[in-house]
Design goal:
By secondary structure, this protein is an alpha/beta fold. Helix content is about 30%, strand content about 15%. The chain folds into two domains: about 80 residues, no CATH class; about 325 residues, 3-Layer(aba) Sandwich (Alkaline Phosphatase, subunit A), CATH 3.40.720. The protein has 14 helices and 20 strands. The strands form seven sheets. Strands 3, 6, 7, 10, 11, 14, 15 and 18 form an eight-stranded mixed β-sheet that branches. A hairpin with a 5-residue loop joins strand 19 and strand 20. Helix 1 packs across helix 9 and helix 12 packs parallel to helix 13. The termini are far apart.
C-alpha cells in the first residue's frame, strides 16, 4: 500500500484522517478501490480506437419554439417576441440571439421531433436513453458507464468517463450519469464543483486540505522515489496503474485551463460559476465546453456536463424571455467555439456532440410570462462524429404542440451515439446483476439521416 503521510493527524468532518487520505491501495470510489476499478475495466476489454462523446445537458428543458422551431406565423401568445434569423442551411431559421450558430448551422443537425419524454426534472433519461420505470436491479447504466464497460480506457492514465456537472441544490439535474447495474467501477470521475484545479478523491475535495502545497510536493516526491524503488516492480499491475493516474500530469493538465491561450478561452466565453437564473441549478460556465474538449483530447471517451437553468415558468423569478437573453447568447458562444475548436484540431470526425434537455416547453406563454413543462415533444442538436450535418430532422405542427413528421426517440439518439463510438447496438450487450445480457437500447436503431 502506498500512502502520502502528513506528519499530523488532522481529521476531516467525515472522520477521514489526512494521514490516510491518499492510500493508493484503499482509495475508494463507493467502496471499491481504484485498482479494483481499473481491473474491472480491463476485464471488459479495450479497443484501440478513440472515439468520444460530449453530452451537454440543458437542465430544466429548453424551449424548442424559441430556439430552432420558431413559429413566426402563430399568434403572439404562442410565438412570443423571438425573431427568427436565417442560417447558412437553406430553409433553417434559429433564434436571433444565436447568430454564431446561424453562421455554423451546417456543422449541426437539428432534431425538432424528440418524443417519449417522461416529464421528470432529472437528467436520467438523457443520460441513459431509458425511462425510470421498470428498471432492473441496480438500475440502468448511463451512456458513459456503458462505454466504460465495453471499451475501457483509451489511456491508462485517463478515466474513460468524466462528469463535469457542477453541484446543484436540485441534484437530479447534476447527475452526470450513474453506473447502474454495471457497478461503481464504471461510475464517472468527477472533478470538483468548480471543475478546474481540484479533484474529488474519496469524496474529499482537495481544497479542504489546509496545506495543499505540501500535498502536491508529497505527490512529486513519492513519484520520484517510486521510479527508483526496486520494490515497485513487484506490486500489482492495477495498483501501479492507479498510482499512475493519481500522479500523472495528463489528467490534471487537461483540467487546468490556465494552460490554454487566453484568446481561446475568450472565444469560448469563460462564463461564471454562479448559479444561472435562480439558485437550484448550475452555472453558465463556458469553461466546461473547453474543458470537455481538453478531456476528450487526452483520451476520455465520454464527458457529460450540465449547463445553465432552463426551467422558466415566469414571474416572480423573471420572465422566460429575460432568461433567454442571458442563456442563448452564452450557449451560442460556447457551443460554436467547441465545434470550431474540434474542427481546427481535426477532432470533429471522432467526437460526437449532443445537446438536449429532459423535455420541451408549453406552446402557449403562461400568464406569468413563462413556458411550463411539455413532454409531448422536445428538441436536440447533434454534431461531429462523422454524422451528416446541415439538416433538420422532423417537424411539429403550426403551434409546436406535437410531432407532425419523423418522430425520434431517445433510444434512437443513443443508438446513433453508440454507432459513432463503434458499438453495434444489434449485437453489443452488458450483463445485469442476474447474469442476463441486456441490449444497450430498447429496439432503437441509429438515426438513418445521420449515419
Amino acid at each position: 500500500m502506498l500512502t502520502i503521510e502528513s506528519g499530523k493527524q488532522h481529521r476531516f468532518c467525515d472522520g477521514i484522517s489526512r494521514r490516510n487520505f491518499l492510500q493508493i491501495g484503499s482509495l475508494a470510489m463507493g467502496g471499491l478501490s481504484l485498482p479494483q476499478i481499473l481491473r474491472a475495466q480491463d476485464l471488459s476489454g479495450k479497443r484501440d480506437s478513440h472515439k468520444s462523446v460530449i453530452m451537454i445537458f440543458l437542465s430544466g428543458g429548453p424551449p424548442h419554439q424559441d430556439w430552432f422551431d420558431l413559429k413566426p406565423e402563430a399568434p403572439a401568445e404562442i410565438r412570443g417576441p423571438r425573431v427568427p434569423i436565417a442560417t447558412n442551411v437553406p430553409g433553417l431559421e434559429v433564434c436571433e440571439l444565436m447568430p454564431q450558430l446561424a453562421n455554423m448551422a451546417d456543422k449541426f443537425s437539428f432534431i425538432r421531433s424528440i418524443v417519449g419524454a417522461e416529464g421528470r426534472h432529472a437528467s436520467f433519461q438523457c443520460m441513459t436513453g431509458r425511462k425510470t420505470s421498470r428498471q432492473p436491479q441496480g438500475g440502468w447504466p448511463s451512456l458513459g458507464a456503458t462505454v466504460s464497460k465495453l471499451q475501457g480506457g483509451s489511456d491508462p492514465a485517463v478515466p474513460p468517463f468524466v462528469g463535469l456537472s457542477p453541484k446543484m441544490r436540485h441534484y437530479p439535474w447534476a447527475d452526470a450519469g450513474q453506473p447502474g447495474f454495471l457497478g461503481v467501477a464504471h461510475a464517472p470521475f468527477k472533478p470538483s464543483a468548480e471543475g478546474k484545479q481540484d479533484m474529488i478523491l474519496n469524496a474529499v475535495n482537495a481544497e479542504r486540505l489546509d496545506d495543499r502545497k505540501s500535498l502536491l510536493a508529497s505527490l512529486d516526491s513519492m513519484r520520484r522515489q517510486a521510479e527508483v524503488i526496486e520494490e515497485m516492480q513487484g506490486i500489482d499491475a492495477y495498483t501501479k496503474q492507479a498510482f499512475g493516474i493519481l500522479t500523472s500530469s495528463k489528467l490534471a493538465q487537461a483540467l487546468d485551463l490556465s494552460k490554454e491561450d487566453p484568446k481561446l478561452r475568450d472565444r469560448y466565453g469563460r462564463g461564471s460559476t454562479k448559479p444561472a437564473g435562480y439558485g437550484d441549478a448550475g452555472p453558465l460556465l463556458n469553461d466546461y465546453f473547453l474543458m470537455a474538449r481538453r478531456l476528450v483530447e487526452v483520451g476520455v471517451r465520454c464527458v457529460t456536463l450540465a449547463y445553465g437553468r432552463w426551467d422558466w415558468h415566469g414571474k416572480p423569478h423573471g420572465t422566460i424571455f429575460e432568461h433567454e437573453e442571458e442563456h442563448f447568447p452564452m450557449l451560442d458562444q460556447g457551443l460554436t467555439a467547441l465545434m470550431e475548436d474540434l474542427q481546427n484540431r481535426g477532432m470533429d470526425k471522432d467526437v460526437s456532440i449532443v445537446v438536449w434537455g429532459e423535455f420541451g416547453r408549453t406552446p402557449r406563454i403562461s400568464p406569468k410570462v413563462g413556458r411550463d413543462h411539455w413532454p409531448k415533444v422536445s428538441c436536440a442538436m447533434l454534431a461531429g462524429g462523422g454524422m451528416q450535418t446541415g439538416q433538420v430532422i422532423g417537424s411539429t405542427n403550426r403551434f409546436a404542440e406535437h410531432v407532425e413528421s419523423r418522430p425520434v426517440g431517445f433510444n434512437e439518439v443513443f443508438a446513433t451515439l453508440y454507432h459513432n463510438l463503434g458499438i453495434d447496438v444489434n449485437s453489443a450487450t452488458v450483463t445485469d446483476l442476474s447474469g442476463r445480457p441486456m441490449y444497450l437500447v430498447d429496439e432503437g436503431q441509429p438515426i438513418r439521416e445521420l449515419i
